[in-house]
Design a protein that fits this description.
Structural class: mainly alpha
Shape: globular
Oligomer: single chain
Helix content: 40-55%
Largest sheet: 2 strands, parallel
Distance between the termini: 26 Å
């Protein structure tokens, strides 16, 4: 018998693997947080599966998601990335990844880690566990994603509106939106 999953992942093997092994699992390291930030920002206006299928290309193009290396990218790197057919060749999104890397490092310096910065928006610095029975109940944003997005925008981050922020928080396990009954759900 097939295990119960959140309906959004359908039956695409890549989506199922992502759902079962990654989505909603709590991320407490900045390396993975930066990876999700780059990927979620690249996804703006596109489907997540589009980015997921290009994930390894993004890893190669963006120095293994090493935030310090990406922060040092130059105009020459932007031009190189504009020629990379393995990623979404949108100049604004590429430039944003570099700018966001620099801002990410600034947050690390200010808060000790990006992880601590994100948790500072949560009640008692703990992730939220929702109890949705179907994916139709899951919102696209929340008060927390609104607040984080607003603060990040004020700091200069781009392509990180409340909807993308909410998706980022779900992916990184800060908001547990696995539906009740999903075999991946953890009530922590």
């Amino acid at each position: 018998m097939e295990p119960i999953r959140c309906g959004w992942c359908g039956d695409d093997p890549l989506y199922v693997k992502y759902h079962d092994e990654e989505w909603g699992r709590f991320v407490d390291n900045d390396e993975k947080m930066f990876e999700f930030l780059v990927l979620e920002s690249a996804q703006a206006g596109l489907s997540w599966i589009t980015i997921l299928r290009r994930r390894e290309n993004y890893r190669n193009a963006f120095a293994g998601f090493d935030v310090k290396k990406v922060a040092e990218f130059t105009d020459k790197d932007v031009e190189r990335l504009m020629q990379d057919a393995g990623i979404i060749r949108n100049r604004r999104k590429i430039e944003t990844a570099i700018t966001n890397a620099r801002l990410f490092i600034g947050i690390q310096k200010e808060f000790g880690s990006f992880y601590d910065y994100i948790l500072s928006f949560f009640p008692d610095n703990k992730p939220v566990v929702n109890n949705w029975k179907s994916i139709s109940e899951i919102p696209a944003t929340s008060e927390i994603s609104d607040a984080i997005s607003k603060d990040m925008k004020k700091r200069g981050f781009k392509f990180f509106g409340s909807t993308i922020c909410y998706a980022h928080l779900q992916a990184a396990g800060y908001i547990n939106d696995h539906i009740v009954g999903c075999h991946c759900r953890q009530d922590k």
